[in-house]
UniProtKB/TrEMBL annotation:
<protein>
    <submittedName>
        <fullName>Histidine phosphatase family protein</fullName>
        <ecNumber>3.1.3.-</ecNumber>
    </submittedName>
</protein>
<keyword id="KW-0378">Hydrolase</keyword>
<feature type="active site" description="Proton donor/acceptor">
    <location>
        <position position="84"/>
    </location>
</feature>
<feature type="active site" description="Tele-phosphohistidine intermediate">
    <location>
        <position position="9"/>
    </location>
</feature>
<dbReference type="InterPro" id="IPR013078">
    <property type="entry name" value="His_Pase_superF_clade-1"/>
</dbReference>
<dbReference type="Pfam" id="PF00300">
    <property type="entry name" value="His_Phos_1"/>
</dbReference>
<dbReference type="GO" id="GO:0016791">
    <property type="term" value="F:phosphatase activity"/>
</dbReference>
<feature type="binding site">
    <location>
        <position position="59"/>
    </location>
    <ligand>
        <name>substrate</name>
    </ligand>
</feature>
<dbReference type="InterPro" id="IPR029033">
    <property type="entry name" value="His_PPase_superfam"/>
</dbReference>
<dbReference type="InterPro" id="IPR050275">
    <property type="entry name" value="PGM_Phosphatase"/>
</dbReference>
<feature type="binding site">
    <location>
        <begin position="8"/>
        <end position="15"/>
    </location>
    <ligand>
        <name>substrate</name>
    </ligand>
</feature>
<dbReference type="GO" id="GO:0005737">
    <property type="term" value="C:cytoplasm"/>
</dbReference>
Length: 196
């Protein structure tokens, strides 16, 4: 049995502005750094972890580094396959910009946005390698909201994703053979005042 905890990175200024981030390398803002610190304290108190992987984009990597400092994990391993879904021409824009430029049906246009099949292909390849190389371990993976949602729809098709993933949200999975089961989704109790 392998335990994988998947985490969305802390907040950024573009999150707050509603800007499409995609593969643009936007850093954590001050709140995002504090969110990661609170999450690090939570994870350190929960159990011992064996390994941590993050996207190479700085908002995820810095979140992972803060967690690693709190939990004593070293080194932080990065993998480009964990990057956010590319937004193509939409990166840096807000919804109002997209409607003004391409109309209300902009999602139907070919604007260079990464296709779901391409996201699944790289994500599944990462998870397959992870499970082969680190079977039976307790693993932390820090990535991005759209990438995580795409992967969960693919890996846990019976699990209904009812909520938008929050910054530093924790989602826990147990993998036995090739079956993924989720026992915690989109949890941010560490952000509550007085927690940890």
């Amino acid at each position: 049995m392998t335990r994988i905890t998947i985490i969305r990175h802390g907040s950024t200024s573009w999150n707050k502005q509603g800007r499409m981030q995609g593969s643009t390398d936007i850093p954590l803002d001050e709140e995002g750094i504090e969110q990661a610190r609170k999450l690090g304290a939570r994870l350190a108190a929960e159990q011992n972890w064996d390994i941590i992987f993050t996207s190479h984009l700085s908002r995820a990597k810095r979140t992972g580094e803060i967690i690693a400092e709190a939990t004593g994990l070293s080194p932080v391993l990065t993998d480009e396959r964990l990057r956010e879904v590319s937004g193509g021409q939409t990166e840096g824009t807000v919804e109002e910009d997209r409607i003004a430029k391409w109309g209300p049906d902009w999602r139907q246009l070919d604007l260079g946005i990464e296709k779901p099949d391409a996201v699944h292909e790289r994500g599944v390849a990462f998870m397959k390698d992870l499970l082969q190389e680190h079977a039976g371990k307790r693993i932390l993976v820090v990535s991005h909201g759209s990438f995580i949602r795409h992967m969960l729809r693919h890996l846990t098709p019976d699990f209904v994703l009812t909520e938008h993933l929050k910054n530093t949200a924790v989602s826990r999975f147990v993998v036995e053979d090739t079956k993924w089961s989720c026992d915690l989704y989109n949890c941010t109790t560490h952000l509550d005042l007085g927690s940890f």
